Automatic annotation (TrEMBL):
Class of the enzyme per the UniProt entry, highest EC level: transferase
Gene name of this polypeptide: cysM
UniProt-listed SUPFAM superfamilies: Tryptophan synthase beta subunit-like PLP-dependent enzymes
Protein name per its UniProtKB record: Cysteine synthase
Residues engaged in binding pyridoxal 5'-phosphate: N77, G180, T181, T182, G183, T184, S261
Reaction(s) the record says it catalyses: O-acetyl-L-serine + hydrogen sulfide = L-cysteine + acetate
GO BP annotations, alphabetical order: cysteine biosynthetic process from serine
Cofactor (UniProt): pyridoxal 5'-phosphate
Modified residues (N6-(pyridoxal phosphate)lysine): K47
Keyword tags: Amino-acid biosynthesis, Cysteine biosynthesis, Pyridoxal phosphate, Transferase
One Gene Ontology molecular-function label: cysteine synthase activity
Alphabetized Gene3D superfamilies for the sequence: 3.40.50.1100
Its EC number(s): 2.5.1.47
Involved pathway(s): Amino-acid biosynthesis; L-cysteine biosynthesis; L-cysteine from L-serine: step 2/2
Length: 313
């Protein structure tokens, strides 16, 4: 029997995710909306692409050597992707994340063999970044730094953008993406604009006070280093409440089980569709909904009441 290297096998599964049609919310047949199902990656999110790119290129440059311990701050999906690839390549890894992250994310990282360090939740991802950067100064640690590493957007310039262009036969008119590290929107924007400068790039960020895992309104001092505002034509705010309603709708009415940031981006994409006379809109469905089951997103009040009654009986 021919043996397949486990590292090559897992890394080789990253990318070439499906592009599926989503209801636009209108009756205009000249406008179509598609979602790119990044939950189909081996570690179940779009961050698999950046994780593969950052680790492989660090190895190619000789920056990352056998025996080094990876360390990275994360709100969840990047950490899971890094843990999966680190496991397949034999690197120890420590992941630093806010203590109020969902239990599924923490457990998934640990399942891949990662050490998870939880920082105070009230300090959000910025606190995790500060801790990881301090730890990275110690001997033997290597921090990829997804918020400053240009290998992050390069992954989407080389893979996500070309896949979208190919699968829409070059007909895409609008691209909509949540903005976290901004690696996805930066890389895809660069590629699509090179093919057609008229493609409109739309970014999504949370309204003030909203907490949506994976997307942020960054303080200036923590703004990702590779973010270039001129690559985004328009930014639309989405509320946490609306994104959660959209997540439930996509799952229960359409069978698309995705996370909150993906749902928020889909909602914005539908709003864009309503403004158009014709066009092809593509959005990123960046992960899967099963990473949010311990939150209240997919539990309605009736379910919660039933659980309470069962516990009391």
């Amino acid at each position: 029997m021919h043996k397949i290297n486990a590292s090559s096998a897992m890394v080789g599964l990253v990318g070439n995710t499906p592009l599926v049609e989503i209801p636009t919310g209108s009756d205009n047949p000249k406008v179509r909306l598609f979602g790119k199902l990044e939950g189909n990656n081996p570690a179940s999110s779009v961050k698999d692409r950046a994780a593969r790119s950052m680790i492989q290129r660090a190895e190619d440059r000789g920056d990352l050597k056998p025996g080094m311990t990876l360390i990275e701050p994360t709100s969840g999906n990047t950490g899971i992707a890094l843990a999966m690839i680190a496991a397949s390549k034999g690197y120890p890894i420590e992941l630093v994340m806010p203590a109020n992250s969902t239990a599924e994310r923490v457990r998934t990282m640990r399942a891949f063999g990662a050490k998870v360090i939880l920082t105070p939740g009230e300090r959000t991802i910025e606190g995790a970044i500060d801790f990881a950067r301090h730890r990275a100064k110690q001997d033997g640690y290597f921090m990829l730094d997804q918020f400053a590493n240009t290998d992050n957007p390069l992954a989407h310039y080389e893979t996500t953008g070309p896949e979208i262009w190919r699968d829409t036969d070059g007909q895409i008119t609008h691209f909509v993406s949540a903005m976290g590290t901004t690696g996805t929107i930066m890389g895809v924007s660069r590629f699509l604009k090179e093919q057609n400068p008229d493609v409109t790039i739309v970014g999504c960020q949370p309204t003030k006070g909203s907490r949506i895992p994976g997307i942020r309104r960054w303080p200036q001092e923590y703004l990702p280093k590779f973010f270039e505002p001129e690559r985004v034509d328009r930014i639309v705010d989405v509320s946490q409440a609306d994104a959660e309603v959209q997540a439930r709708w996509l799952a229960s009415e359409y069978g698309m089980f995705c996370g909150i940031s993906a749902a928020g981006a889909t909602l914005v994409a539908q709003q864009i569709c309503a403004e158009l006379e014709s066009g092809i809109v593509v959005t990123i469905i960046c992960d899967r909904g099963d990473r949010y089951l311990s939150s209240t997103v997919f539990a309605d009040s009736g379910e919660q009441q039933t659980i309470e009654k069962l516990e009391l009986s």
